[in-house]
Amino acid sequence: MDDTVAAEWIWFAFIVVFGACVGSFLNVVIYRLPREKSLIRPGSACPNCNAPIYFYDNIPLISWLMLRGRCRQCKATISIRYVLIELLTAVLFAGVYLWFFYFEGRQTGLSGVAMQQFFSGGWLFYLAVITLMAAFLAASAIDLELWIIPIQLCWFVSLVGLAASIAAGWVIDPETIVAFQLFPQAGPTLSAMAVGAAFGTMIALALLRLGLIRPSYEMQEAGQLDGDESPETSEPEYNDRREILKEVVFLMPILVCAAAAAKCSQWQPMVEKWTVLVEYPAARFGFGALAGYFIGGGVVWATRIFGTLAFGKEAMGLGDVHLMAAAGTVIGPGWVVLAFFVAPFFGILWALYQAIFKKMRQIPYGPFLSAAVFVVIIFHDGIRKLIITMYGV
To answer: pTM to 2 decimals?
Structure first.
């Protein structure tokens, strides 16, 4: 066997194993994060008898099969969810790698065989995408079980997306990034609006902390569920329209600062300097990720506000807002809006499934949004060609 081929197989096997290990950690995140428990201490233990799970019983995929899905000590059943998450994460890590660098289903503009593309800069693009997918997998599992999306997962994805975008120009040729849309990007006006929105967010948060702005649904705090609580737990009654107006007040500094920044960027003494600054790759892609954050969160928040005002009942959750904001830092402003409009089709498919098989269980919207983001990432090139063919843009 050729040395290059052997190296490719070894590297691919490492990705699969690493994906399974990440999946094992995601199981910890899925159980502990919404219950506000440490992700590090104590070590893994059987939820039934609390016996410590030793390393040889905690090997991803293999241990569950060897134990036949039961605790070694008390013989209690271990949920199949654990092995499914590990398997799905391994498949995601391996599948995305193959799709990007081997089959080139999402072209990166990098040359060479799969491993050469990866190590010549593709690793940063892969890292940003796979971080989003792994975190959204965990968020969807939590949302399905508890109807909440831990904001920590969204913040983590946002930080990775922003950092990767800022660093991208030093790792991959900026012209390649622009041509193949590997990272978000923004022009002078959109960049200014993103910076203004960030400044407005700090003002809004300061006003909130000072008590000058009242929080909406102040008695509802995500992440306070313990092991015995469920989404069906009784909740206090609210006037939803009145509560949502508090969020409108919170958003006003953000909108005002974004509009003011856009105006300032067009002020003649500022135009040339600001345009030169935005041309730097770190600024262009970093501001693009920031713009994706605000536009991704903004489109969901706007739907939440108008839906609540129109129907008098809370429409969508703030967890969905943070989820799509995080997605925007990785896939960019335009693509996150597209993903938002793709998500309802998954909802329709679920509704048809319920109608055909008489399944009555409702599920939260987070998994639909996550699935839509996944579709937009994987089929990015095909969707882009379709848009160009139809609209010539």
So the answer is: 0.91
